[in-house]
Amino acid sequence: MNKILIQGNHVIGEAAIRAGCRFYAGYPITPQNELTEYMAENIRKVEGGTFIQAESEIAAINMILGASAAGARAMTSSSSPGISLKQEGISSMAADELPGVIVNIMRGGPGLGNILPSQGDYYQATRGGGHGDYRTIVLAPDSVQELADLTMDAFDLADKYRNPVLILADGMIGQMMEPVVFGEPRPRKYDESYVLKGAGKGRSRFIRGLILDALKMEEHNWKLHRKYQAIEQREKRCEISRTEDADLLIIAYGTAARIAKGAIKRSREAGMKVGLIRPITLWPFPDHVIREFSDKVENFLVFEMNTGQMLDDVKLALNGRGHVHFYGRPGGVVPTPVELAKVIAHHYNNNRSLDED
Amino acid sequence: MSTVQNFEIYVPKLLDKREFFSAGHRACQGCGEVLALRLIMKALGDDVVISNATGCMEIISSAYPQTAWEVPYIHVAFENAGAVGSGVEAALKALRRKGRIADRYVKSVAIAGDGGTVDIGLQALSGAMERGHDMVFFCLDNEAYMNTGIQRSSATPFMAATTTSPAGKAIKGQRTGKKNVPEIMVAHNVPYVATACPSYPIDLVNKVKKAKEVKGPAYVHVFSMCPTGWRSASEQTIKLGRLVVETGIFPLYEVENGKYRMTMEIPKKLRPVEDYLKLQGRFRHLNADDIEKVQALVNKEWRKLMNKVACMKPW
Predict the structure, then answer these.
(1) A217-256 per-position pLDDT tens digit
(2) Closest Cβ opposite residue B164 in set A53, A111, A112
């Protein structure tokens, strides 16, 4: 396996093609353009690979809905404002139980915001995002290597649960270059029963999200709910590091987790026992891990590049136990490890003096 | 010969000296689009409300906390210039009628790039024109998504290379011709539709003034040269604008109540398209056969237009 230096946005494209993605529809928006450009250049080099530049984000998501219904592994990508436009399509895919991968390279918001890295779309990503009672699996990589691995996993998860999967990274991870070793993709396993490929000799198939009968709709909602419960049981992922003796735990994901790792190194050098919990799946949220730590650790610091969104999930996981602190920088500001280390020292020392009293 | 005869067409010295789009913005060297915008603003004056969709012109002129705009201005999401312009017009009309604001005529103006007009913004534009709002829509067409790094749009010309229509051996860049949005606007029964180019400043200004005076919707499609995206020399900007008209690739005309009129003198023989193509890096991969194909497409479109000019009568 060759180790190559490659940019985050290009990695998503390359990993998707290796994982068997044969249909990509995109639309220009910074900071994810390199992905669209990579697909324009490279997906046509593999057999059956199709690239379409759509006329809008809405068209792009519905093109992958169509491609998915026709049986292709399909992906689209955008950045925050574009993902908002895609929500109706994502909701439809969830309702129709069609697999698909959607990449969100987040930027500052709300509105058009700016083009700098941010984590303001956490709520949108983890609460379904569009209308109706549904969820999407959300994967949050913190390095280019993990971006490669999770992109491949995203296609498998989408097929396994027949549900849209969202890759939630930000402009920083999309734009930076790191060495990457591409893993071996697993062969595609999926149930062909839903694929629309012409009636042939069998019965014609039928995909719909409009169910006018209330009881039938309720039945469909509960069916989806049971699927989401199964996902919650099986697919929670997180990384824990330096938690063995920790007095204070930082909870951060994506770029924020990278910054936290730097800050923890500094704090440890200064003698503070600080650890990290990094959720890799944001939905399903790895609340069981956080809950387990609440027996040993009193203080938690949620660190995000927004004004406090994952904070809610951490509080729900802890359910009143421990103290939850928050530090965030929204709007495209990328905080430094030094900055976070100061916040850590503040909470750590405050807590110490309380204990001594 | 004709240049000397029509000297005033090319010399914008008689234009209003006031600037409503001020200097100090961040446009690239040799930007034809910002020149067009400056001339449009001179022609419109300051009794306007601008609704500007995301794109080059918004990014270079309105990065907080600075702005180049000296007139009321709102920046809106990519697909919405037509819709927001409609809202502004309807609200101003209602407030004027109720006596809440001074009884002064203020024009609602929507400005978008080619992506914000011919792709994602077409729905909102069509709605605005169909409802007949008293507004002007300007499409500043630089033939691709330049702001995000040169991706193709449906205004990208046949065989042009962009980052999402890369030129290879089998596929030579953009595979389809330019979407003819002025024609779509004519089909909306819009009272005034025009095409313009900043290389012909007086013609552009006259069309903008006409569009402003029309009571009802008006649409002006402005060809905007882009040295950055077209891989051409920045000092060639004005020349490219002239060549695109002289080769018949982008003819300058206006449609008043369904009547087509060429606003520039119709040359007896068009220049070969090669003169225009060879100055730009985006067409560098074309061989003689490809240029022949482009020429054939241009000839066909030119014939279609000439038929309309000859036959169409006002409603």
Answers:
(1) 999 999 999 999 999 999 999 999 999 999 999 999 999 9
(2) A53
Which pLDDT score, from 0 to 100, does residue B11 have?
67
One domain for residues A40 and A188:
yes
Give the residue from A191, A207, A234 where a domain finishes: A234
Residue B120 has its nearest CB partner, among A36, A51, A56, at A56
CB < 8 Å to A56, chain B:
79, 119-120
Nearest to A150 by CA among A27, A37, A293, A16: A16
CB contacts, 8 Å: A111 with chain B: 77
DSSP line for A265-285? HHHHHTT--EEEEEESEEES-
User: Domain residue spans in chain B?
Assistant: 2-311
Show which of A176, A200, A234 is a domain's final residue. A234
Q: Verify that A29 and A131 share a domain, yes or no.
A: yes
Whole-number pLDDT of residue B12: 67
Q: Please check whether residues A94 and A200 belong to one and the same domain.
A: yes
- Residue B257 is encoded by which pair of tokens? 């109540």
pLDDT on residue B2: 44
Residues A131 and A102 in one domain: yes
My answer on whether A73 and A107 are in the same domain is yes
ipTM of model: 0.90
* Domain identity same for A109 and A258: no
Mean pLDDT of chain B: 93
Q: What is the value of pTM for the model shown?
A: 0.92
Average pLDDT of every residue of chain A = 95
pLDDT recorded at residue B3 = 46
Contacts of A81 in chain B (CB under 8 A): 77-78
Q: Which of A57-66, A113-122, A272-281, B62-71 has the lowest mean pLDDT?
A: B62-71
Which top CATH class is B2-311?
alpha beta
Q: How far is B268 from chain A (nearest CA, A)?
A: 38
Same domain, A246 and A217: no
Question: How far, rounded to the nearest angstrom, does the alpha carbon of residue B26 sit from its chain's CA centroid?
Answer: 20
Element (H, E) at A145: helix A144-161
Q: In chain B, helix, strand, coil percent, each to 5? A: 40, 15, 45
pLDDT for A356 beyond 70: no
Q: Which domain holds residue A285?
A: 239-356
Smallest Cβ–Cβ distance between A55 and the set B77, B119, B149 belongs to B119
Task: Looking at the structure, tell me whether residues A141 and A30 fall in a common domain.
Answer: yes
Distances (CA, A) of A52 to A38, A65, B119, B123, B167: 12, 13, 14, 20, 15
pLDDT average, residue stretch A85-98: 97
> Which positions ≥6 away from B136 have C-beta within 8 Å?
B44, B107, B108, B109, B110, B208, B211, B212, B214, B217, B218, B219, B220
